[in-house]
Design a protein that fits this description.
Number of strands: 2
Structural class: mainly alpha
Helix content: 25-40%
Shape: globular
Strand content: under 5%
Oligomer: single chain
Strand order of the largest sheet: 1-2
Low-confidence stretches: none
Number of helices: 4
Largest sheet: 2 strands, parallel
DNA sequence: AGATTGACTAACC
DNA sequence: AGGTTAGCCAATC
């Protein structure tokens, strides 16, 4: 186990929010941050980068605001990212030929 | 306790 | 259309 410190409340909120995203859908850092009452999508990314320890945290369901699948591992492109894209597609997410995510697959949080 | 970074986004040039 | 600057929040050094 994890020699890592326990997740903070903020991180907890982020994980919980991501877990609320149904399969076949994705969410942007901006929307996620907004749901957390935070105007800094960076803080959200921070939480994910500091604690990707949990398989229960589908960080691959979180994408950039331009609907570009970046961030999974800090890189905007690469074989690993491409793999995630295929995984998302397997979950039901549609991708454009340009590698962009279908806007219809964006998940919106309840008010 | 203070300064720096980091998986972002929007605005400006 | 593309590159750069600024703003933001929290964790880490």
């Amino acid at each position: 186990m994890p020699a890592t410190r326990p997740p903070t409340e903020f991180e907890n909120r982020v994980y919980q929010a991501i877990r609320t995203i149904p399969p076949g859908k994705v969410c942007t850092y901006g929307e996620l941050a907004r749901h957390l009452a935070c105007r800094s999508p960076r803080a959200v990314g921070q939480a994910l980068r500091r604690n990707p320890f949990a398989p229960a945290t589908p960080c691959h369901r979180v994408v950039g605001g331009k609907l570009l699948p970046g961030g999974f591992h800090g890189m905007t492109s690469g074989p690993a990212v491409h793999e995630k894209i295929q995984l998302l597609r397997a979950e039901g997410v549609s991708f454009s030929n340009n590698g962009r995510i279908d806007s219809s697959c964006i998940h919106h949080f309840p008010s």
